[in-house]
Amino acid sequence: MAVPHFQTNDRLITQTEVLDILVTAKLLSSSEAEKFLKLWTRSQENPLTHLADLRIQDRRHPEKIMTHDDLMSVIALGLGIAYERVDLLKVSLDVVGSVLPYAYVDRLSIVPIEVSNDKVVILTAQPFALEWVDEVKNQVKRKIELRLSTPAQIRHILNEIYVVQKAFSAMAREQGNKGTEKLRLLRQGKMTELDNLIEKSKGKKLGPQDGNVAKIVDWLISFALFERASDIHLEPKRGLGQVRFRVDGDLKTVYRLDPEALLMVISRFKILGDMKLDEKRKPLDGGLKRELENGKHVEMRLSTLPTNYGEKLVVRIFDKNVAGKDLDFIGFSRDDMKIWENLINQPQGLILVTGP
Predict the structure, then answer these.
(1) Is the pLDDT score of 6 beyond 50?
(2) What one-character-per-residue DSSP string does 89-142 give?
(3) The sheet that has 110-115: what strands, in order across it?
(4) How far is CA 320 from the centre of its chain?
(5) Has residue 144 got a pLDDT over 90?
């Protein structure tokens, strides 16, 4: 694919540039690009945000739709910059969080993801707005290497490094100082007393510990939606707590945390789901509806299960955007799709789906 020539003076990326790259890559026709341009001009958002709404057929696999990551890779190639989708498990959060202050990176919508002796790797969603580079280079005394990312991923990583990590640190300090009354009861396993204490404190102002746990729970839900996960698994293991997401049918580990922190996160979910805190020996079910900071509503079903190392919680997310607006996301061939559509439109009968 030919790389278009761009003016790189300090400015914002334009909708036309993004669409021109897709036309050059023969993923869109000129008429389709004009149609999208008319739709996008109504929005003030970064044009990279709109890529998530495009449904472009993959030329290598005509039965499949190109993913957001596929499209971002094409755009990055056209812009002459590498695209990076970050795995948070591979990022040293304490290190990168100490490189630049939150107010600075938040204002510029950039985020450091890798620090070495000679360079700092920084994500940006504005590859032409670079007046900050020299200033940061002088501050960190290292070479700056830029990678392209989406505004959504940058916002998510910013929250993780500068907000959630701060909440975990605050929890750790309180635990190290023997914590609040709630934490003491949790450690001693006095769940009936803890349940009574929570009942008495309903309607009262949350303490710092409650606020930190609430931030972590909200972040986990937002993280799962960002990753298009259908389930969140909170699992106690020997000496650690593990968070896994089910994405496209596969379970992947996305976070590891202190087992006591996991206990409090699970308890927070149980409180929100109106589940009994003192019952840990039997499976429980609950549900909750949440409104996130962006105004989005999400509905969840909660299920607990006792294990050798403590209580496990599975959160099933019901989000219409996870699966997609139609059945293309399943990946059926055209012939299989015709068979499926014929079956589901029958007035009666049963379709039995089995196997992995």
Answers:
(1) no
(2) GGS-HHHHHTTS-HHHHHHHTEEEEEE-SSEEEEEES-TT--TTHHHHHHHHTS
(3) 110-115, 119-124, 143-148
(4) 16
(5) yes
Record the tokens describing residue 35, joined without a space.
């149609």
Q: Find, among 312, 302, 183, the residue nearest to 237 by Cα.
A: 312
Neighbours of 312 (CB within 10 A): 19
Confidence of residue 179 (pLDDT cuts 50, 70, 90): very low
pTM of the model: 0.62
Q: Is the sign of the CA dihedral 22, 26, 28, 29 positive or negative?
A: positive
Q: Hey, how many other C-beta atoms are within 10 angstroms of the C-beta on 185?
A: 20
Three-state DSSP class for 290?
A: strand
Q: Which of 271, 277, 237 is CA-nearest to residue 257?
A: 237
Query: With b meaning 16 or more CB within 10 Å and e meaning fewer, what string describes 141-160?
Result: ebebebbbbbbbbbbbbbbb
DSSP 297-322: EEEEEEEEEEETTEEEEEEEEE-HHH
d(CA 204, CA 338): 57
Give tens-digit pLDDT for 224-244. 887 788 999 999 887 778 899
Residues 6+ apart with CB under 8 A from 345: none
Q: For the residues of 252-265, what is the DSSP string, one character each?
A: EEEEEE-HHHHHHH
- Per-residue pLDDT reduced to its tens digit, 99-109: 888 888 888 88
Mean pLDDT of all residues in the chain? 80
Asked whether residue 1 carries a pLDDT value surpassing 50, the answer given is no
Q: Are 126 and 13 in contact (CB under 8 A)?
A: yes
3-state helix, strand, coil in the chain (%, to 5): 45, 20, 35
- Determine what percent of the chain is predicted with pLDDT higher than 70: 79
Both tokens of residue 51?
Answer: 């890529």
